[in-house]
């Protein structure tokens, strides 16, 4: 949802953080500008496979600031470690 809405926004955003983020084929990339994108996904997600975020990351590779962080062993949830990670703090 964060990727879809963030990329459709008419406003300049400080960043987009996606947890288990899926980018649909029809998600527009033209409004992204230089907005940094940070994607997290649990490698043990049993609701949405990790490949979904990896595909989103691959689609964004030409973007100036995109980072993908696979969360080892995490299921479909947001781990407190994800909030406290140095990359998250630096990103914000």
**Sheet of most strands:** 3 strands, parallel
Mean pLDDT over the full residue set: 80
Strand order of the largest sheet: 1-2-3
Helical stretch count?
4
Shape summary? globular
The percentage of residues in β strands lies in 15-25%
Could you estimate the helical fraction of the residues in percent? 25-40%
Overall CATH architecture: 3-Layer(aba) Sandwich
Indicate the CATH class: Alpha Beta
CATH topology name, in short, is Rossmann fold
Derived from helix and strand composition plus strand pairing, the structural class reads: alpha/beta
CATH superfamily: Alpha/Beta hydrolase fold, catalytic domain
> Would you report the number of β strands?
3
Domain count? 1
Q: What are the secondary-structure elements, in order, as H or E? A: HEEHEHH
